[in-house]
From TrEMBL:
Signal peptide residues on this chain, from the entry's feature table: none
Organism phylogeny: Bacteria, Pseudomonadati, Pseudomonadota, Alphaproteobacteria, Rhodobacterales
Highest taxon listed in the record's lineage: Bacteria
Transmembrane segments: 46-68
Protein name, as recorded: LapA family protein
Keywords assigned by UniProt, alphabetized: Cell membrane, Coiled coil, Membrane, Transmembrane, Transmembrane helix
Residue span, Lipopolysaccharide assembly protein A domain: 45-94
UniProt feature coiled coil, ranges: 80-107
One Pfam family, short name: LapA_dom
């Protein structure tokens, strides 16, 4: 399985390098269309190689997706934490009740109850 992963990463690296080399031409990115930028008097543009724009878009999409998913799963994580705390509380109560019950019994039987 390790070799499959290394092979996949090698192929992915080769593809990314070849795409990057094929798309080295500069493109201009503008924050707003020219008409709106003229009205506001604020025109921001930058020239970057096309492969930087493509890989940056992929990276930005991944980050946005991870953050979105993390925020969406907050409710599930909170419920899991509450259930975990409740289980720990109930386990402590069961242990306390077993000790209270075994106070009348023989010590050997109490040890066997705790083991099971």
């Amino acid at each position: 399985m390790r070799y499959i992963r290394y092979g996949f990463l090698a192929v992915l690296g080769i593809v990314l390098i070849s795409v990057s080399l094929a798309n080295r031409g500069a493109v201009t990115l503008k924050l707003m269309p020219d008409d709106i930028a003229g009205l506001l008097g604020w025109n921001f543009s930058i020239s970057l190689p096309l492969f930087v724009v493509m890989l940056g878009g992929i990276a930005a999409g991944l980050v946005i997706g991870f953050v979105w998913e993390w925020m969406r799963e907050y409710r599930h994580r909170r419920e899991a934490g509450q259930k975990h705390r409740e289980v720990r509380k109930l386990e402590r109560e069961v242990t306390r009740l077993k000790r209270a019950k075994s106070g009348d019994e023989d010590e050997v039987l109490a040890l066997l109850d705790e083991a099971s």
